[in-house]
Amino acid sequence: MKKIIHTSEAPAAIGPYSQATLVNGTLYISGQIPVDPETGKLVEGIDKETHQVMKNLKAILTEAGMTFDNAVKASIFLKNMDDFAVVNEIYASYFDSGVYPARETVQVSCLPKNVDVEISMIAFKD
């Protein structure tokens, strides 16, 4: 059974996709960029961008009845790999249990709206 997950606490999709899809306990979250859902505006600066992306992911997880503890896989896309240490530190701070999902981080030439970071995630709950 497939259920579309949507919350106003995260930015609306900017294309033909859903914020997330829940299938048999597995939540597939679309890539989140640093858009503040209250204003619809991008936040700037890699620190603020990363925090906003993580807040957006958290809002979607919450809507699905999950937390970062349910995350099993994350994909981080960076415009500049020199931002890796900052993004990594902020990302890690959202996992209270200290148990982290599998992950890859890749540098890309461009991201939607020319942001510096985008993160997608897969989470699971029985």
TrEMBL record:
Q: Name one GO molecular function term.
A: deaminase activity
Classification via Pfam families: Ribonuc_L-PSP
Example GO CC term: the record gives:
cytosol
Classification via InterPro entries: RidA, RutC-like_sf, YjgF/YER057c/UK114
Task: List, alphabetically, the Gene3D superfamilies matched.
Answer: RutC-like
As for family, the record states: Belongs to the RutC family.
**Which NCBIfam families does the UniProt entry name for this protein?**
Rid family detoxifying hydrolase
Give the protein's recorded name: 2-iminobutanoate/2-iminopropanoate deaminase
**UniProt organism field:** Epilithonimonas xixisoli
Starting at the broadest rank, the lineage of the source organism is: Bacteria, Pseudomonadati, Bacteroidota, Flavobacteriia, Flavobacteriales
